[in-house]
Design brief:
alpha/beta, Rossmann fold, five-stranded parallel beta sheet, four-stranded parallel beta sheet, 12 helices
C-alpha cells in the first residue's frame, strides 16, 4: 500500500496550509483564562496529549497555571466542586466524545466558563460547542481517518498562539518559520526514512518507547499513540524522568527507544536516558530537532513521526486510515 495514497497522508499535507488559515482567524484569547491566571484543561487520546503540551507551554512561558481534569473525579464527586470564576478548555476533535461533553456540562454547572476546542464546524453535529460559552474551531477541514494528525497539529498551534496572546515573547517570525519547517519535513521525509533505516529498526522492535521532555513529552505520548493506532505496534511515550523511574526496566535488546530532543545537544536527563539504554544494550535513535526555535520545532518532530508511523503501517500491509477495531469517535461514557 502506498502511504501517499492514504487519507492520512492527505491530512498531513494539509497541515501547513491549515496553520496559516488558523492564524488568519486568530482572536483575542485574553478572556479565556480566569482573572487569577489559571485554566483547567480536559481531553482524551490525542486531545489529552495536546492538553499536556498546553500545560508545559502556558506554565513555562505565560505563568498561567494549567490544571488537568479527570472526568472520573468530577462524575463521582461526593461534594460540590467550586469552579466559580474558573475557565475550562475542553478538547474534542469531533465535539461528540460523550464523557468530555458530560464532564464539561457538569463543570459548567459548578460555575465554570467552558471553552470548546473542536474540529467540527457543523453546530448540529457539535455537542460540545453547543453547551460551551466559547468555541475555538481549529479548521473546517474534516478529519476522517482514525488517527488525529492535522487536528493534533492545530491543537499544538493553538497552545502556542494562546501563549503569545497571554504574554509569551513569541515573535511572528517563529510561527512563520515553524510552518516552513513542517513543509520541509514532509518533502524530505522519504530521504530521511531510507537513510536512517527506520523500517528495519522499527520492524525488529518488540516495544517502541518514545522519550521527550517538556513540550516534547506531549509529542512522545502522541507518537506512541499513533504507532499503536496506525501501525498496530506496541509503543509507549514517557517524559525523561518518568522513563528513568522504572519503565526503562522493561526495555531490552529486542526493543527500540526513540529519544526526542528539542535542542541540538542532549539535555542532562536525556543523556542519562541514553547512557542507561547503552548499559542495558537497548537500541535507540536520537531524533535530533529540526531547525527552528524551541518549542516551535516540536511541530516538525511531531509531523515527522506521524509520517514514520504511516509509512511503516503501509509497508507492512496495515490500513492506517481505518485500523481494525478502532473508530474515529471513541465513546467511553
Amino acid at each position: 500500500m502506498d502511504y501517499k495514497s492514504t487519507l492520512t497522508y492527505k491530512d498531513i499535507l494539509e497541515i501547513p496550509g491549515l496553520l496559516r488559515k488558523f492564524d488568519a482567524g486568530v482572536k483575542d484569547f485574553g478572556k479565556l483564562k480566569s482573572a487569577d491566571n489559571e485554566v483547567f484543561v480536559l481531553g482524551r487520546g490525542s486531545s489529552g496529549n495536546a492538553t499536556t503540551f498546553a500545560k508545559y507551554v502556558w506554565e513555562i512561558y505565560c505563568g498561567v497555571i494549567t490544571n488537568f481534569i479527570h472526568p472520573y473525579s468530577v462524575f463521582n464527586a461526593v461534594k460540590r466542586l467550586d469552579f466559580r470564576n474558573k475557565v475550562l478548555w475542553s478538547y474534542s476533535q469531533s465535539g461528540k466524545s460523550r464523557d468530555i461533553v458530560e464532564c464539561s456540562k457538569k463543570i459548567k454547572k459548578f460555575g465554570a466558563r467552558v471553552v470548546a476546542v473542536t474540529n467540527e464546524p457543523d453546530p448540529k453535529k457539535n455537542e460540545l460547542a453547543a453547551i460551551s460559552d466559547f468555541h475555538i474551531l481549529l479548521s473546517r477541514s474534516r478529519e476522517i481517518p482514525v488517527a488525529a494528525t492535522k487536528s493534533f497539529a492545530l491543537q499544538l498551534w493553538l497552545a502556542l498562539r494562546a501563549a503569545q496572546k497571554w504574554g509569551a515573547s513569541f515573535p511572528e517570525k517563529r510561527f512563520a518559520d515553524a510552518i516552513k519547517e513542517v513543509e520541509k519535513v514532509i518533502s524530505s521525509f522519504e530521504r530521511i526514512y531510507k537513510a536512517e533505516k527506520f523500517r528495519e529498526a522499527i520492524k525488529r522492535a518488540k516495544i517502541i518507547g518514545f522519550v521527550g521532555r517538556g513540550p516534547f513529552n506531549a509529542v512522545a505520548e502522541d507518537s506512541a499513540l499513533k504507532f499503536r493506532e496506525m501501525a498496530f505496534k506496541h509503543a509507549a511515550g514517557y517524559s525523561a524522568a518518568e522513563f528513568l523511574h522504572g519503565p526503562i526496566g522493561a526495555y531490552g535488546k529486542n526493543d527500540l527507544v526513540l529519544i526526542l530532543s528539542g535542542e541540538g545537544k542532549l539535555t542532562e536527563d536525556l543523556v542519562k536516558v541514553r547512557n542507561k539504554l547503552e548499559e542495558r544494550g537497548t537500541r535507540y535513535k536520537v531524533i535530533k530537532p529540526f531547525p527552528g526555535a524551541y518549542p516551535f520545532n516540536s511541530l516538525a518532530t511531531d509531523v515527522f513521526i506521524k509520517l514514520l508511523a504511516l509509512k511503516f503501517a503501509c509497508d507492512n500491509g496495515v490500513n492506517p486510515d481505518a485500523p481494525k477495531g478502532l473508530s474515529k469517535v471513541t465513546q467511553t461514557y
